[in-house]
Design brief:
Elements (H helix, E strand, L loop, with lengths): L1 H10 L3 H10 L22 H34 L15 H29 L7 E8 L2 E6 L4 E5 L4 H9 L1 H8 L4 H19 L11 E4 L4 E7 L4 E5 L4 E5 L5 E5 L5 E6 L12 E7 L1 H12 L3 H24 L1
Parallel strand pairs: 1-5, 4-10
Antiparallel strand pairs: 1-2, 2-3, 5-8, 6-7, 9-10
Helix pairs in contact: 1-2, 1-3, 3-4, 5-6, 5-7, 8-9
The structure holds copper (II) ion.
């Protein structure tokens, strides 16, 4: 809450509004997904993102201080040295002490920013020994995630209004209702009808996917990233990682999630017409849940694997509700 508030205060002049909206939102809002009215960064779920947020906040304070200082100087010059108040201007051209100061002080400010910045950069490239290695492959327009140690590949497609409606009311009823509509009219009708289904599923529209990938809590994940066609970009904001997926090259990021839950990201480089249709959803679960999920996938029982993740999500939700009620 403090961090969100801080981000909001440093982020914009309408901080008061953000403060009010942050008071009314649930405790976990902003963790793993964007929230309406949010101005700061998404909440951290890894040590990388914690450091990244604190660097962002520190630099923000420095930027605001500099901007305010320059503004005050300008105002002072405008009022104190205009033609009316200062009809006979001074002919001074040099002031050694002042010139040394305005060279040294900015250097010190840059050094002060560079220290945490390099520390973070080092941390991002530290790559501790991995517990699991996943390869993310961008495709136009979906992601493949290969669990390299397990020989499992999962394809991730975005869930559309149509998909969740069909899952809810069945293919036949869907066709009865919307089969004779076309184009924009059809899209609008499906959008309106799906609104309640999204709420019921408690999933964010246009971020949810048909196949979440799971990773175990507090385990080091190395994620290799590449692409099959054009340049895409893999990111989960709450993990503090973002990496371009370039065809013919393999890049890597690492993270160690220290919070359970579902974490969303999107392809983050403009890649083509369905760029907005390739979200990423990573579910962080307890290691034993992860093992069960992986065993189900290896047994080619996708339904059971989905059930395992669903059960984990529900138990987490009821635990959070319990914690909030206390
Ligand atoms: Cu894209």
């Amino acid at each position: 809450m403090l961090r969100r508030l801080f981000g909001a205060v440093t982020g914009s002049a309408i901080a008061g509004f953000a403060f009010l909206s942050s008071l009314s939102s649930p405790a976990m809002a902003g963790l793993g997904q964007p929230t309406s009215g949010e101005l700061g960064l998404q909440l951290p779920a890894t040590s990388l993102m914690s450091e990244l947020s604190s660097l962002h906040n520190t630099v923000n304070v420095i930027i605001i201080a500099i901007a305010v200082f320059v503004l005050l100087l300008l105002l002072y010059v405008i009022f104190r040295f205009n033609e009316k108040s200062n009809p006979a201007p001074s002919r001074t051209t040099h002031n050694t002490a002042l010139e040394v100061a305005w060279t040294i002080v900015p250097i010190l400010i840059l050094v002060a920013i560079a220290i945490p910045s390099f520390k973070l950069l080092y941390e991002q490239n530290r790559f501790p020994k991995p517990d699991i290695t996943i390869k993310a492959v961008g495709n136009a327009w979906f992601w493949d995630h290969e669990y390299l140690d397990q020989g499992i590949t999962l394809s991730t497609n975005m869930l559309h209004d149509e998909d969740v409606l069909k899952a809810k009311i069945g293919e036949k009823e869907f066709n009865d209702k919307f089969g004779n509509l076309e184009g924009v009219a059809r899209r609008e009708a499906v959008y309106a009808a799906a609104a309640d289904v999204w709420k019921e599923r408690n999933e964010p529209r246009q971020l949810s996917v048909d196949q979440e990938i799971a990773i175990p809590l507090r385990k080091v994940v190395h994620l290799l990233i590449t692409s099959n066609d054009v340049i895409h970009s893999w990111t989960i904001p709450s993990f503090g990682v973002k990496q371009q997926a370039v065809p013919g090259r393999t890049a890597a990021v690492w993270f160690q999630a220290d919070k359970e839950g579902i974490f969303y990201g999107q392809c983050s480089v403009l890649c083509g017409k369905n760029h907005s249709g390739m979200p990423i959803a990573v579910r962080v679960v307890k290691p034993e849940v992860y093992d069960n999920w992986m065993a189900a996938l290896k047994a080619k029982d996708k339904a059971k694997a989905a059930e395992i993740l669903k059960a984990a999500a529900e138990s987490l939700r009821s635990n959070q509700a319990l914690a909030q009620a206390q």
